[in-house]
Design a protein that fits this description.
The structure holds 3 protein chains of 3 kinds. Chain A has 19 helices and 2 strands. Chain A is mostly helical. Chain A has one domain. In chain A, helix 4 runs antiparallel to helix 11 and helix 8 runs parallel beside helix 11. By secondary structure, chain B is mostly helical. Chain B starts with 6 loop residues before the first helix and ends in an 18-residue tail after the last helix. Chain C is an all-alpha fold. Chain C is built from 3 helices and no strands. The relative contact order of chain C is 0.12. The chains are: A mainly alpha, B mainly alpha, C mainly alpha. At the A-C interface, helix 6, helix 7 and helix 10 of A face helix 1, helix 2 and helix 3 of C.
Chain lengths: 512, 163, 119
């Protein structure tokens, strides 16, 4: 076994190590709680390390397929495509990086935040299982496997949402999320059946060649779009998101948000990688744009009336999902036309850059808001006030996240939003006007939240201490955010552009 | 105070449990040859737990053991998959090597030889262990929480607000 | 349409009926247990769909002992169905556990009473 073998196998490590450590944590945690805790951290770090290994390999040497239990597929060896395939390309790198950053921050945050809860071993297990599920979802190369990881993510993340089962509301949010996810999963299975019944293959690469664009294909695509849009908390089905984000244990809230981002990654992969050849991309792109604009408007409107800090950020995150869907939708709608060259690609860059960006600053925002709730025991904005006197670091972190989500110039949220505005304006100016208005309202909302919670006279609300590990995890996110702020062009050329290549040109040249 | 059925039911349970578990083990071990496999066999074994719970109203103090057994099964499953990483993950490195589970599959229709599965047999075994333990645990927890078995008093609402 | 072709469509009819019943139950019933039952019915509908897709007249089950390999059906859809059944077990167990906890916290499993997240 050489280093090359391990590098080639890095996609399976990203998936297998969280699984292995999830079960090891339960097992070892029986005998020693400290060791279980340690294993959780080791598992997270190792997973992140292999994400780095895979990213480095993909970005330097190009993408590859990884087949379980058989040889690499090639034009001569197509039979391997009937096995479980993983795709390691630029898009998988973008997705796993986004997930890994948030997972690492949320994991470190959990260490001291969850202190005092019972059944922590199970918490670590669920956390790592969710991580494995999301990674599997974005890495997998066939529909069957996608369904399995979809369900693993659903079950594990719903159990995470309801982890504090001594609170009725947590369980209620978990059940709501679970019912929706299960129904969604069943319809995903149904549409997989529709596709399999026609073509007899499940692999993305083979399906891409095989799909002819019949009515049943369109039906299957419609079901898949609706279900994955639901899981990514896009608008017609956004109602589970605020409950789940609001009632999940604070430290995993950004992680639950990242599972919905994972669904969005999968949605894009399916639309571009599988269906864009045979089913008119213009039509599916328009649907994405409509969903995105609706999410932006509805998310921000609902956020206006929230007085609960966590629910407010949850609704803002719904509206941010809308930006990504709109931008990538513009890219999809112009795919294969001359417009793609002029502005479609720019829109894709903006959309995908916004995804990784949003993953980071949303996590920062959630974690700093949770720190406030943890320190004061109050979630209502009407009762909070003057926290900044006692929590200067958290205030700084929240301010950074708030300015990013509102797209204020020096920060990285602005860079990605600028790309979106510039390109979408050429597609349809009215969309940009809506996006700008939403952005301004976002600024107003998050500004109101910031003033209410942090500024004002010191009311002596801060009771609990914010531990160093919590600050460390927010610091990691801030460091990443600052990097994105300082070098947005590097991120776009080095990470986002390969991702677009992987998304659009994926599976080309593999088949004869 | 445990909830318990009559002596007739309990005796029949005692008798039936043995063939149930043996049938479950049969299903698990023949998973690579006949319909069945780890999950199905494990479910059959776990149904004997259901019988125990219904007739005796208790499982004794084996909850922690069940949880550990489940974790052991899962960990070994993943490890067996990882051992093939030199070639690819989930590679069947035992098949055709001779020795235990490594027999060569003869060509053409044949009655099926249990010695031929390679890692598939081992993985079926692990899944069987995992599923039987996990399902028993689920049944145990649910029947305790829903009052078939004596429920322990848990913490109620009214905890402090947390993020 | 011949009788044979008509009978071949019967499973799909059953699939549609099962999915509709399940969806109706999930959308319009107030009892949490009934909602979970509706999901289980939908699950069976989806499984039946996959199994009837994989059915080929005159071919054998892919067990290595009984027939020539050319006379066997491709078992991918069956594998999907088995996986779906396993996953269905996990999701049903989790949802039922949630329902038990909701009953303990709220004293009711009616969806009208179980709406406190927004307060």
């Amino acid at each position: 076994m050489t280093w090359d073998t391990i590098v080639t196998a890095s996609p399976t490590f990203i998936l297998g190590l969280p699984l292995l450590f999830a079960f090891l944590t339960t097992l070892v945690g029986r005998f020693s709680k400290r060791l279980g805790k340690l294993l959780f951290g080791v598992g997270l770090l190792l997973t992140t390390f292999f994400v780095g290994v895979m990213s480095y390999q993909v970005l330097t040497d190009g993408s590859w397929f990884y087949v379980f239990g058989a040889e690499q597929p090639s034009p001569e060896n197509l039979l391997s495509f009937f096995r479980i395939t993983f795709v390691a390309d630029g898009f998988a790198v973008l997705a796993t990086l986004t997930i890994a950053i948030t997972a690492l921050a949320a994991g470190i945050y959990s260490y001291s935040f969850m202190k005092g809860e019972s059944g922590l071993n199970k918490f670590y297990t669920l956390f790592l299982l969710t991580l494995a599920g999301v990674n599997g979802m974005v890495l997998t190369g066939d529909l069957f496997n996608l369904f399995v990881w979809f369900e693993v993510t659903s079950v594990a993340s719903c159990a995470l949402v309801a982890f504090r089962n001594y609170k009725g509301k947590s369980v209620e949010a978990g059940l709501k999320y679970m019912v929706l996810s299960t129904v969604g999963g069943l319809f995903v299975l149904f549409s997989i059946g529709l596709l399999y019944g026609q073509y007899g293959v499940l692999n993305y690469a083979l399906l891409r060649e095989g799909i002819t664009g019949t009515f049943i294909d369109k039906l299957a695509l419609g079901i898949l779009v609706v279900m994955f849009a639901m899981k990514s908390s896009s608008v017609p089905m956004q109602m589970w998101a605020p409950d789940a984000y609001g009632e999940a244990p604070g430290s995993v809230t950004p992680f639950i948000a990242i599972t919905s981002m994972g669904s969005l990654f999968v949605l894009f992969r399916l639309l571009f990688g599988v269906f864009s050849v045979s089913i008119s991309p213009a039509a599916s792109g328009s649907i994405l744009i409509i969903l995105g604009v609706l999410s932006m408007i509805v998310g921000v409107t609902m956020a206006l009336v929230q007085s609960d800090l966590k629910r407010l950020i949850a609704y803002l995150s719904v509206s941010q999902i809308g930006y990504m869907m709109m931008a990538v939708g513009v890219g999809l709608a112009t795919l294969n036309t001359g417009e793609y060259e002029s502005f479609g690609e720019l829109a894709m860059q903006g959309g995908l850059f916004h995804m990784i960006n949003d993953g980071v600053y949303k996590a920062l925002l959630f974690l700093s808001a949770v720190a406030v709730v943890h320190a004061t025991g109050i979630r209502s904005l009407n009762e909070l006030g003057g926290v900044a006197h006692k929590m200067p670091y958290t205030t700084f972190f929240f301010l950074l996240g708030a300015l990013s989500i509102a797209g204020i110039p020096p920060l990285s949220g602005f860079s990605s939003k600028l790309l979106i505005y510039k390109s979408v304006y050429l597609y349809s100016p009215i969309l940009v006007i809506i996006a700008l208005v939403v952005s301004i309202i976002t600024l107003a909302i998050i500004g109101k939240a910031f003033f209410n919670a942090f500024l004002g006279p010191n009311q002596g609300l801060v009771k609990n201490h914010i531990s160093k590990t919590m600050l460390l995890s927010m610091g990691i996110l801030t460091a990443v955010l600052v990097l994105f702020t300082l070098f947005p062009n590097v991120v776009v050329t080095e990470i986002v552009s390969p991702a677009i290549e992987g998304l659009i040109g994926s599976f080309e040249g593999v088949l004869p | 105070m445990n909830w318990e059925m009559s002596r007739v039911v309990r005796t029949i349970t005692d008798i039936l449990i043995v063939p149930m578990i043996i049938f479950g083990i049969y299903l698990v071990l023949h998973g690579h040859l006949t319909p069945g496999g780890g999950f199905q066999g494990g479910a059959v074994i776990a149904s004997s737990t259901a019988l125990l719970i219904v007739s005796y109203g208790t499982l004794g103090k084996h909850k922690k053991d069940l949880s550990s057994i489940e974790a052991v099964g899962l960990t070994l499953f993943i490890l067996i998959a990882f051992f093939g990483i030199g070639y690819t993950m989930f590679y069947n490195y035992l098949a055709g090597t001779g020795g235990i589970f490594g027999g060569t599959v003869p060509a053409g229709p044949n009655p099926g030889y249990i010695n031929t599965g390679g890692t598939v047999t081992l993985m079926n075994l692990m899944v069987g262990i995992e599923v039987s333990a996990a399902l028993s645990l689920i049944l145990w927890m649910m029947s305790r929480e829903s009052g078939i078995m004596e429920a322990k008093d848990k913490g109620s609402e009214g905890m402090e607000v947390k993020g | 349409m011949s009788w044979d072709a008509f009978f071949m469509t019967m499973p799909y009819l059953a699939v549609v009926i099962l999915l509709s019943i399940g969806l109706y139950t999930v959308l319009f019933k107030k009892n949490l247990i009934k909602i979970i039952m509706g999901i289980a019915i939908m699950q069976n509908g989806a499984n039946l769909f996959l199994v009837s897709l994989a059915y080929r007249d005159g071919y054998y089950a892919p067990i290595f002992t009984s027939a020539e390999s050319t006379d066997m059906v491709m078992p991918t859809a069956h594998a999907l169905t088995l996986t779906s059944i396993v996953i269905g077990l996990a999701t049903t167990a989790l949802m039922l556990s949630f329902t038990i906890m909701i009953k303990r916290h709220y004293g009711s499993i009616n969806t009208e009473d179980v709406r406190r997240c927004k307060e």
